[in-house]
């Protein structure tokens, strides 16, 4: 049994931000921190005070986390980035909103005395004395202190205060991981109510010292315990009343949802998994038809989550194709008009979207990646709508003569025809690169639609069914928002965004098989019609080859593709290679291209793929592949061993214990993450539990008026239908959860104080 917490984060947009640049604008981006650990950085939106990001993230983290903070920053090319403001949401705040925290929140001023981080190791003792007892405070070490100096470190010392008397440790230069091992004693009077205050400070020669955090110790509690030792979380100084610039720094729109799950052992979920798998294997002729019932009882707002969980569960069981095939048949059975097929947000549509993102993202990158990169690199002005043409944005050509509107339209059409042609050519060459399970699923879709809508008048319907997912719900959204599909690290500027939008419209026209409706919708797309018509023929030929895969070929291709472990993360890293003392210069590092799989971490001198290195993504990837590593260290050195000591804590023993704890619990969810079967089963159980009343109502109808809530017959009494078995499985799982330890998050040891915000 394991307790797991996750955060669904959507950073939507900001508004009314203050201008930080001399141009009267800003270049905002967001940094997301969990307990002061940066985990997310959004793209920068240039020259705006009302940025739109629309970025979504799923973060897995320990149940004991305290808060998540959103910092809005202004990027500067020549100086340090400016802090605009922040929003901080505590765990208690998120737990009070079970359906998620959503809406606009005012940005608050970032006060240096509140921006504290790290922990301090103290040993506290109450000792007998000749006249009175003595309070002994041993300041041992600290870790992960906030860097306050330009060199990226601090010069920390500790100030211990009790009953008007103050004592200080020595100063440790240039370290966020200092070690003091100094002891202080105070006279202790019985019944004294004053608290012991331990403050960490950064020493500065010229300016005032910077506050690093404090710990307040309850002496009465310590008197009862006589001794206490551990790591204490540093707290902000909230003793001063500070004016808040609420509303003057703009606002941030967020959607944040906390989910706490107690995941039981795999054996507890086996009856539920086996029952659902049996239903899928039986298909539409099954006796209980649980899958249609799940779709019927699932609300629109949670249909995407349910579809994703079911898809991942069946993908792990090797039944993703059969599950989607069942949904295809159910959708076709209630569709009478071919032009409305798969156009709604049904369970079939949502499951297929999730399937393509989980199983086809690498394929998408291989096909679209080069085309998207070329559009970003060219940065050409492209416009086909005469009402939106801006000649002044185009520049001059020839002998410094401004281009006419006709010339702009013609050059734009040529550019889009070139991009569309390159994309279609790449797509036609990619049949063998497409994952076997994706090809087999499209084969089932093609066959089912052709069986449902036979005849010459419906000749294009099977092709349109495939392109409705491949082009309209997968390729086109990726073209319009490459950042959200990890094709680019930054959002496109206004000019590039317009080019991508027009290219996506052209792809949609090709995917619609150039129907009259798509032609008349936007007449100014007419210059692309020759390429679109040619693309329709190419696309039909591609789909014909794509779905032409037999069971044997499917197994052989899947076996070939599975021989190599898929990379979890790829990209360049800089390796420090300088030995001895001296400054860290660019020549001190060597650039190598790394590839991390579930089996090994390898590197080469040249890149095998074009990926951008992000520190938090690398850390997240390394944590995922190390999750089952029993030899994982509990501590490490965040610095380097240079000369005769570690740069982080100044420790001289190279193989000594690390000065910082290993953070192995905070990870970002990616499309290529390994499947977690137990977690998916738990999420499905949670959903079914939320609609249990409707399931009982359906059971009452099917069983001829039995009262809702009546226990289904036990296996020995009479044959059960699938719905009755499902209700019994839910009952057993509920009992298993109730008999397990409380599913509320485990609190940290007493020495780690709760974060106050």
UniProtKB/TrEMBL annotation:
Q: Where is the composition biased (Low complexity)?
A: 738-749
Q: What are the GO MF terms of this UniProt record?
A: GTPase activator activity; zinc ion binding
Residue ranges of every copy of the Ras-GAP domain listed in the record: 302-512
SMART domains referenced in this protein's UniProt entry, alphabetically: BTK (SM00107), C2 (SM00239), RasGAP (SM00323)
Q: Which InterPro entries does UniProt cross-reference here?
A: C2_dom (IPR000008), C2_domain_sf (IPR035892), PH-like_dom_sf (IPR011993), Ras_GTPase (IPR039360), RasGAP_CS (IPR023152), RasGAP_dom (IPR001936), Rho_GTPase_activation_prot (IPR008936), Znf_Btk_motif (IPR001562)
Tell me which residues make up the C2 domain: 1-105, 116-232
In this chain, the stretch annotated as Disordered covers: 734-757
Output the GO biological process annotations, alphabetical, semicolon-separated: intracellular signal transduction
The keyword Metal-binding belongs to this UniProt entry's keyword annotation = yes
Query: Source organism's superkingdom?
Result: Eukaryota
Keywords attached to this Swiss-Prot or TrEMBL record, sorted alphabetically, are: GTPase activation, Metal-binding, Repeat, Zinc, Zinc-finger
Record's Pfam families? BTK (PF00779), C2 (PF00168), RasGAP (PF00616)
Query: What Gene3D superfamilies does the record point to?
Result: C2 domain, GTPase Activation - p120gap, domain 1, Pleckstrin-homology domain (PH domain)/Phosphotyrosine-binding domain (PTB)
The name of this protein is Ras GTPase-activating protein 4B isoform X2
Encoding gene (name): RASA4B
């Amino acid at each position: 049994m394991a307790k797991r917490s996750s955060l669904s984060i959507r950073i939507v947009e900001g508004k009314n931000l203050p201008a930080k640049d001399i141009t009267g604008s800003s270049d905002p981006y967001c940094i997301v921190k969990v307990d002061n650990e940066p985990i997310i950085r959004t793209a920068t939106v240039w020259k705006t005070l009302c940025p739109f990001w629309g970025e979504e993230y799923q973060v897995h983290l320990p149940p004991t986390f305290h808060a998540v903070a959103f910092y809005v920053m202004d990027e500067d090319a020549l100086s340090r980035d400016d802090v605009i403001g922040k929003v901080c949401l505590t765990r208690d705040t998120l737990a009070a909103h079970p359906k998620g925290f959503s809406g606009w929140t005012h940005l608050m001023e970032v006060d240096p005395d509140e921006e504290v981080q790290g922990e301090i190791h103290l040993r506290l003792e109450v000792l007998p004395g000749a006249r009175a007892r003595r309070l002994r405070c041993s300041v041992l070490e600290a870790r992960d202190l906030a860097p306050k100096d330009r060199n990226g470190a601090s010069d920390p010392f500790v100030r211990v205060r009790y009953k008007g008397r103050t004592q200080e440790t020595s100063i440790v230069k240039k370290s966020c991981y200092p070690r003091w091992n100094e002891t202080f004693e105070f006279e202790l009077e019985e019944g004294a109510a004053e608290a012991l205050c331990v403050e960490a400070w950064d020493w500065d020669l010229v300016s005032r010292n910077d506050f690093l955090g404090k710990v307040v110790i309850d002496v009465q509690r310590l008197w009862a315990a006589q001794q206490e030792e551990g790591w204490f979380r540093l707290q902000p100084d909230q003793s001063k009343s500070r004016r808040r610039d609420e509303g003057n720094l703009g606002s941030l729109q967020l959607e944040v949802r906390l989910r706490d799950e107690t995941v039981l052992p795999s054996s507890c979920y086996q009856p539920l998994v086996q029952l659902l798998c049996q239903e899928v294997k039986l298909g539409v002729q099954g006796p209980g038809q649980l899958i249609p019932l799940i779709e019927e009882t699932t609300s629109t707002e949670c249909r995407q989550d349910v579809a994703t969980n079911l898809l991942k569960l069946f993908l792990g069981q090797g039944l993703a194709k059969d599950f989607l095939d069942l949904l295809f048949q159910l959708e076709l059975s209630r569709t009478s008009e071919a032009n409305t097929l798969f156009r709604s947000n049904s369970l079939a549509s949502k499951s297929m979207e999730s399937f393509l993102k989980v199983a086809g993202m690498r394929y998408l990158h291989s096909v679209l990646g080069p085309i998207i990169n070329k559009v970003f690199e060219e940065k050409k002005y492209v416009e086909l709508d005469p009402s939106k043409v801006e000649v002044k944005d185009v520049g001059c050509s020839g002998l410094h003569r401004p281009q006419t509107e006709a010339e702009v339209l013609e050059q734009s059409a040529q550019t889009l025809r070139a991009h569309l042609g390159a994309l279609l050519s790449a797509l036609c060459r990619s049949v063998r690169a497409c994952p076997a399970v994706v090809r087999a699923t499209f084969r089932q879709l093609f066959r089912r639609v052709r069986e449902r809508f036979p005849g010459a008048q419906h000749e294009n319907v099977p092709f349109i069914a495939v392109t409705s997912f491949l082009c309209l719900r997968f390729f086109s959204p990726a073209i319009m928002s490459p950042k959200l599909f990890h094709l680019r690290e930054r959002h496109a500027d206004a000019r590039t965004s317009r080019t991508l939008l027009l290219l996506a419209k052209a792809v949609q026209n090709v995917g619609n098989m150039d129907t009259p409706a798509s032609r008349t919708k936007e007449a100014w797309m007419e210059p692309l019609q020759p390429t679109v018509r040619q693309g329709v023929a190419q696309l039909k030929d591609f789909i014909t080859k794509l779905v032409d895969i037999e069971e044997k070929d499917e197994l052989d291709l899947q076996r070939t593709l599975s021989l190599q472990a898929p990379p979890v993360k790829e990209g360049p890293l800089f390796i420090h290679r300088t030995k001895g003392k001296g400054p860290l210069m660019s020549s001190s590092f060597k650039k190598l291209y790394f590839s991390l799989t579930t089996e090994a971490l390898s590197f080469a001198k040249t890149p095998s793929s074009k990926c951008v290195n992000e520190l938090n993504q690398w850390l997240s990837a390394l944590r995922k592949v190390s999750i089952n590593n029993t030899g994982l260290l509990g501590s490490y050195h965040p610095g380097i061993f240079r000369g005769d000591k570690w740069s982080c804590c100044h420790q001289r023993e190279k193989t000594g214990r690390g000065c910082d704890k290993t953070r192995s619990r905070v990870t970002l969810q990616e499309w290529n993450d390994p499947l977690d079967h137990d977690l998916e089963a738990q999420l499905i159980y949670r959903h079914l539990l939320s609609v249990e009343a409707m399931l009982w109502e359906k059971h009452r109808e099917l069983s001829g008026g039995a009262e809702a809530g009546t226990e289904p017959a036990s296996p020995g009494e009479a044959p059960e239908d699938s719905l009755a078995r499902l209700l019994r499985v839910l009952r057993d799982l509920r009992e298993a959860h109730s008999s397990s330890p409380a599913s509320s998050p485990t609190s940290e040891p007493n020495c780690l104080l709760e974060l106050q915000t």
